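Query structure, 166 tokens:
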């Protein structure tokens, strides 16, 4: 009786092929696990801007960047605003630096953003000038366009005050 076990596929015994097989299995597992969870943030395509304008809620559009320290302190306020006042307003973000999709997702995660973010800057389609200072927040009244442009970090309270003002 022969004590050696013959492999089903002799090519698998080659260490290079074995490494390739392992890498393929690992990539397959990683890609299937990566697709299991919900994406942390919805990315809004600028082609959908018309639906946003026709919204019956207030719209808050915040411009931010990774390098902007005041933006980092403002994001938790905007997350809270979106979570607690979603019945009367919608918060959107715009990455001032407009990186590609991979860098955008990483930046959103790094900033801890929990509200939808535009893939591209919607300023032209929404009829306001592109902000040049950060952070900048555009407040739009339901169906009426730009209500106010706010420069500097905002809080839940300061944004609610702007909405109550009208």
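Result returned for the query:
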């Amino acid at each position: 009786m022969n004590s050696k076990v013959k492999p089903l596929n002799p090519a698998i015994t080659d260490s290079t092929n074995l490494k390739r097989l392992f890498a393929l299995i690992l990539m397959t597992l990683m890609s299937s696990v990566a697709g299991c969870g919900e994406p942390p943030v919805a990315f809004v395509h600028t082609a959908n801007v018309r639906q946003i304008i026709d919204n019956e809620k207030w719209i808050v559009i915040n411009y931010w960047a990774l390098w902007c320290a005041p933006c980092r302190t403002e994001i938790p306020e905007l997350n809270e605003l979106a979570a607690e006042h979603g019945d009367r307003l919608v918060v959107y973000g715009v990455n001032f630096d407009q990186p590609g999709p991979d860098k955008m997702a990483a930046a959103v995660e790094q900033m801890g953003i929990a509200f939808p973010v535009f893939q591209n800057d919607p300023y032209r389609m929404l009829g306001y000038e592109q902000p040049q200072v950060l952070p900048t927040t555009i407040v739009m009244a339901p169906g009426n366009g730009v209500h106010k442009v706010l420069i500097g970090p905002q809080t839940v309270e300061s944004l609610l005050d702007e909405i109550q003002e009208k």
